[in-house]
Amino acid sequence: MQPIIRGLAYVVGDAIDTDQIIPAEHLVYSLKKPEERRLYGRFALSGVPVGGQGLPEGYTPFTDPDEYQSRFTFIVAGKNFGCGSSREHAPFALTEAGAQVVIAESYARIFFRNTIDGGFVIPFESHEKVNDRIRTDDELELDTRIGQLRNHTTGQEFLLKPLGDVADILRAGNVFEYARQSGLIPVA
Amino acid sequence: MALTVTEKILARHSGRERVVPGESIWVDVDILMTHDVCGPPTVDIFKREFGENARVWDPDKLVVLPDHYIFTKNHHANRNVRLLRAFAQEQSLPHYYDVGTPRYKGVCHVALAEEGFNRPGSVLIGTDSHTCTSGAFGLFSTGVGNTDAALIMGTGKIWLRVPQTMRFIFEGTLPPYLMAKDLILAVIGDIGCDGATYRAMEFDGEAVYALSMQERMTLTNMAIEAGGKNGIIAADQVTLDYVRARTDAAFETVFSDTDARYHSEYRYDVSELEPVVAKPHRPDNRASVVEVAGTHLDRAYVGSCTGGKLEDFKAAANVMKGREVVIDTFIVPATTEISQALHTTSIDGTSLWDVFELAGCKMGQASCAACLGGPPDTFGRIPGSEAVISTTNRNFPGRMGSKQASVYLASPLTVAASALSGVITDPREVLV
Ligand code: SF4
User: Fold this and answer.
1) Nearest-CA residue of chain A relative to B371?
2) Interface size, chain A vs chain B, as Cβ–Cβ contacts under 8 Å
3) Which of residues 24-53 of A touch B (CB under 8 A)?
4) Is A80's CB within 8 Å of B194's CB?
5) Ligand 1 pocket test: which of B34, B393, B409 has the largest number of ligand atoms within 8 Å of its C-beta?
6) Which of A48, A102, A153, B222 has the fewest CB atoms within 10 Å, i.e. is most exposed?
7) What is the pLDDT of residues A37-52, one digit of tens each?
8) pTM across the whole model
9) Does residue B13 have a cis peptide bond before it, meaning omega lies within 30 degrees of 0?
10) What is the pLDDT of residues B392-429, one digit of tens each?
11) pLDDT at position A187, please?
């Protein structure tokens, strides 16, 4: 986990479900083959209705048409981010697009687990609603060690919730490394 | 110390006397289920982590059911099934239900029940969020992603945080115009799409135990729609009869202690409830059918693990018999067993299959079909801005195809009544 992450914010609303993060029709691409896996980056967050894409204005795709990488590092959301299906393609798609952090008021549990266990985007929880206080394209800086978030565009600062016991898995890298360190998987 | 049924199962599977909500524990898995969407990427991770020649921890505990993208020409989707087939062969998996063979089943959650994998007291994990369905059999079941599944494939273990339990008690006698779907939509409407996040949802009460196994599965199926980690109904004689008819495997039933501690408790008198829908675009956007009656519809859909079981079709056929639908209506049995039963089960001498065909419905093959949109040639997939009433479990934007569509979730009775009139219709108007 990088100590300091800096980049642009992409803001969405409440209850962004996994079909909005990566629509079901795209789940067929291989996650291994490079020419196919980059399609997950292209279609990340493409299921969000256009008016809700990049708040407050909307109509801003997360990944520009014909691109595979997003210019946004942070996804800032409301409640229950990642609700819906168990598809790990969802955090994978965000990571493949180049995002590193999600900041939401709350998460659906399978999505939260998947981000941690797979070592994808880091899921931080905010104490209060922040997706109305950060605008798409604001420049953010996060100190992941203490959860301090600074909005360089507005000068505002927020303290995010501590990561809790899942931080052990995040530090290990993913659940396999964690399991090796705890002796559950024998190390060759 | 007094434990809920969920806590007790997790304790027994982690070699402990007791567990406390909030603690993270390593749990032994009895059954791991995967399907064609999440199976191939799970296998990729399994091989990356455990080696190209790795063997699954216990082939007898892995159940592989292709069901999602089956009847499509999409070559990526077809490739997924080929990958599963190759893996099943490589690992000599006894429980692989291949497409195009007599073993093919259809929707995984219903198939797990029919094939006897839902055993009371056990731990069943699946790479699908609706794996919570199996909890209807008094077991702990939850959905996970590919990484967690790959770890189970290699070790037979999963780390879980012990959930607090919310208890939902249904009392009274269910009126003939209501189904389990109305009960669970009412609960989700009350507590919201994140009202049970990280928690167990335990269903109890005489009205629950008066339900068949298929109807109980509708309740637990939608626990995830309230964010729940698992849904659970302790086993009774109905459960045991169902399970015993389908497996010889050993199992041990587990019950909540009477003084177990719950996070919260909700009580419903089912005789006072009304038919409900979830309006677009969230399962917690509840309205009574009376409130939205008359809303224009373009399509109706009866199918999925939630609303595509034999009892769902019996209910729909009861409404449709001798009548004709006025909008495009899609009938998709969850499994091949149900599909066959549509031919052998009849009302007043007419098979359910014929009731639907005579009513003008379009009949699909056992699979997930349009429940999750899928490739453009998927049966029943919503192409544009249609208004659809459906017995499925999710109505987030784009779930059944087009983002422009509006999907109303309802019971099979309400969907059938609405298919006859082309507007949302209270089943009480057509049930005699
Ligand atoms: S029928 Fe629908 S909800 Fe059920 S497993 Fe298939 S896609 Fe998921």
Assistant:
1) A24
2) 136
3) 24-25, 27-32, 36, 47-49
4) yes
5) B393
6) A153
7) 999 999 999 999 999 9
8) 0.96
9) no
10) 999 999 999 999 999 999 999 999 999 999 999 999 99
11) 73
Tens digits of per-residue pLDDT, B390-400?
Answer: 999 999 999 99
The pLDDT of residue A188 is: 59
3-class SS letters over chain A: CCCEEEEEEEECCCCCCHHHHCCHHHCCCCCCCHHHHHHHHHHCCCCCCHHHCCCCCCCCCCCCCCCCCCCEEEEECCCCECCCCCCCHHHHHHHHCCCCEEEECCECHHHHHHHHHHCCCEEEEECCCCCCCCCCCCEEEEECCCCEEEECCCCCEEEECCCHHHHHHHHHCCHHHHHHHCCCCCCC
- Smallest CA–CA separation between A24 and chain B, in Å? 6
CA atoms of B432 and B424, how far apart (whole Å): 18
List all residues of chain A from 68 to 127 with a beta carbon under 8 Å from chain B: 79-80, 83-89, 91, 106-110, 113-114, 117-118
Q: Which amino acid appears at position A97 of this protein? A: A
Cβ of B76 within 8 Å of Cβ of A24? The answer is no
pLDDT at A169 over 80: yes
pLDDT at B75 over 70: yes
pLDDT of residue A25: 87
